[in-house]
Amino acid sequence: MLGAGGIRGEAGEKLARLAFERGVNYVDTSPDYSATGSEQAVGRAIRGMRDQIFLATKFCTPIGHLPPGTPVANYKRAIEESLQRLGTDYVDLVHIHSCDEVERLMDPNVHEAFDRLKEEGKVRFLGVSSHTPKLVEVANQAVDSGRFDVMMLAYHHGLWAPVPEIISRARREQDMGVVAMKTLKGAKHRGLVDFQDVADAYSQAALKWTLGNSDVSCAVISFREPQHVDEYLYASGQTLTAEDRRTLDRYDQAIAGTYCAPHCGECLNHCPMDLPIPDILRHRMYFEDYGQEKEAMRLYARLERNASVCASCSAPCQDTCPGGISIQQRLDETHAMLSVG
After folding, report:
1. For labelling alongside 282, which of 153, 232, 265, 330 has CA 20 to 30 A away?
2. Within 22-105, where are the H helices?
3. Cβ contacts of residue 286 below 8 Å, gap of 6+?
4. Which helix (H) or strand (E) holds 54?
5. Strands 123-130 and 150-154, sheet pairing
6. Contact criterion met (CB below 8 Å) for 59 and 110
7. How far apart are CA 337 and CA 47, in angstroms?
C-alpha cells in the first residue's frame, strides 16, 4: 500500500507509477499532504488505471483538519475538491483524518456528509485514522458505533497491549478492514550510524511483523525513493524469522530514549503550558528521519503553542516518559531545529 504523504511533483508521479507497475494497488493520500501536491501527483499517476487502484483520501483541507460542527456543505466540498485534484469522480475510502477526539469522530455533520456523498456515488467506504494519544478511546468508539468500514491505526513492533486487542475487536465485532501505519516505528534506521548494515533488513522485518497479524488487512508505508519499491515489497508474503526478531530488538535498543510512541501521551498532563508534545516530536521525526524538512517546519510553524517556552520551564514533564525521553532537552533541540529564522 502506497503512503503518498511524501509524494509530489513529477518525481512523485513517476514513483507512484513504478509502485503500480510492481503490483501496489492501494494509495493513501490527503489534501494536507505536501499542501495538495500529493493528491495532484497521485491523480496524474492513476490516469488510465483508475479502476485498478483502491484510492483513499481524508475529510480535510490543505491547511488542516475540519473541526466538529463544520457544516455538512463544507465537509462535502472538501471531498469534491479532492476529487478535482485526483482527476476522478469517486474515491473508494474517506477517513476522518488523524482523529484525536470522539467529538470529531462522531460529529453528526461529517456522517451526514458521508451519507450524502455515498448516495451521490462519490465515496464508497468510511474510515478513521489515528496515531494520537487518544487512539485507544477513538478506536474503541469507532468500533462501538458500527459506522466505520475501515480503521487506520499506528501499529508496529513493541506496541503496548490495548492496540492489538482493539484491532482484533474491530475485525471480530464489525468485520472492519484494518490498515496499519507508522509501521517502521519512527523510520530512524537510515540515520543510525551503527545500524547501516541492517537498515534494509529492518524495514522488511518491521513489515513482516506487522503483516504477521492476520487481523491486519494491509500496511501503509511512505515510498519516497525508487529503491523503496523493492525494499518494501520484498517483505510482502514473507514470514518473520528469528534473525528478523534480533534485528527488531537491535533497533529498539538503538532508538531508546528518542522515540515518542504515537498513542502514549503520559507527559501531557504534566505540562503546565499545555504543549502538544507528541505533535512537536512527530514534526521532528518528519524532519530528522523522514527527510521532510520543509513540511516539518511548516507544520511546526502552524502550532498555536511551540517549544520556545520550554527553556524557562521547571519541566515537571521530565521524568514522565515511559520510553525514557528527556523531554525538556528533546523539545529545546526540536525548537532550534524547526524554527524559521
Report:
1. 232
2. 37-45, 72-86, 102-105
3. 292, 295, 296, 299
4. strand 54-61
5. parallel
6. yes
7. 39
pLDDT at 328: 94
Residue type, 149: D
Cα–Cα distance measured from residue 39 to residue 6, given in angstroms and rounded to the nearest whole number? 11
CA distance 7 to 141: 32
- Give the chain's residues under pLDDT 50: none
Q: Other C-beta atoms within 10 Å of 339: how many?
A: 13
DSSP state of 146: -
pLDDT tens-digit readout, 185-217: 987 766 666 677 777 788 899 999 999 999 999
Give dist(CA 185, CA 129) in Å, integer.
17
Predicted confidence (pLDDT) per residue in 273-330, tens digit: 999 999 999 999 889 888 788 889 988 998 989 999 998 999 999 899 988 999 999 9
Single pTM value for the model = 0.89
Identify the structural domains of the chain with CATH numbers, from first to last: 2-253 (3.20.20.100), 268-338 (no CATH)
DSSP letters along 99-110, please? ---HHHHT-HHH
CA angle (181 as vertex; 94, 167 as ends), nearest 5: 85
CA dist., res. 77 & res. 72, Å (int): 9
Alpha-carbon distances, residue 209 vs 3, 188, 203 (angstroms): 18, 17, 10
